[in-house]
Amino acid sequence: HVMAESIAPRPILGVHHGAYRCRDAAQTIWFYSDVLGLVDKTGIVLDIVTGTGKEDPYLHLFFRMKNGEFLAFFDAPGSADTHSFDRKESFDLHWAFEVESEDDLLAMQQRINSFGISAVGPVDHGFVKSIYMYDPNGIQMELTCRVPDHDAILEEATAAFPARLDEWTRRTRAQKEAKFGAAALDQRARNPIAA
Asked: Residue 195 — pLDDT band, cuts 50, 70, 90?
């Protein structure tokens, strides 16, 4: 057997796509294309779930962003339930798209609000400013722009991070063990994909 630590990691180039369930492809296209302006879209229809052989017809929808990365959705009404589209808490799931400037951020906020969608903010997070809204699928969407000192702020945070992580772990470990159990917090916990 080869020890896992002896296999060097290869560079991860970026995000190819993040994929989420959608209630309806046409409704989702309206939000992401008509409201947010992602015009490069495509999709494929499949009757069998790849890898499982399970019959569950779905449309796999993709939006290509300016940097070549994708946002994807599954329109699979046969396996969806109404709770699939409940609003998700920000800590549980959200997607942050980046715009070039604060002017662009404010213009997009005005545009989104003009469609009758509430886009709140901007919220100043120190290193970015953001506006927030929900898509038709209950996913919180964030549009964000970097502040001029963005890189310097994150470099400083990176330098201080090891000590911050140690302190955070000490501060929260007992609470997490009580809630989840010590074994669930094992760094080497295995969570294999079900066969």
From this structure: very low
CA-wise closest residue to 147 among 79, 101, 185: 101
138: region left, alpha or beta (phi > 0 left; psi from -120 to 50 alpha): left
pLDDT of residue 146: 97
Longest dimension (CA), the chain: 60
62 neighbors 70 (Cβ within 8 angstroms): yes
95 touches 41 (CB < 8 A)? no
pLDDT attached to residue 98: 95
Look up residue 78 and give its amino acid: G
Yes or no: say if 28 and 73 are a contact pair by the CB < 8 Å rule.
Answer: yes
pLDDT, tens digit, 9 for 90 and up, residues 90-144: 999 999 999 999 999 999 999 999 999 999 999 999 999 999 999 999 999 999 9
The CB-side HSE value for 139 (13 A sphere, CA atoms) comes to 22
CB count, 10 Å around CB of 164?
A: 10
**Rounded (10°) CA dihedral 179, 181, 184, 188:** 140
List C-alpha distances in Å: 66 to 27, 37, 98, 146, 153.
Answer: 22, 11, 10, 17, 25
pTM metric for this prediction: 0.85
Tokens of 101: 């400037």
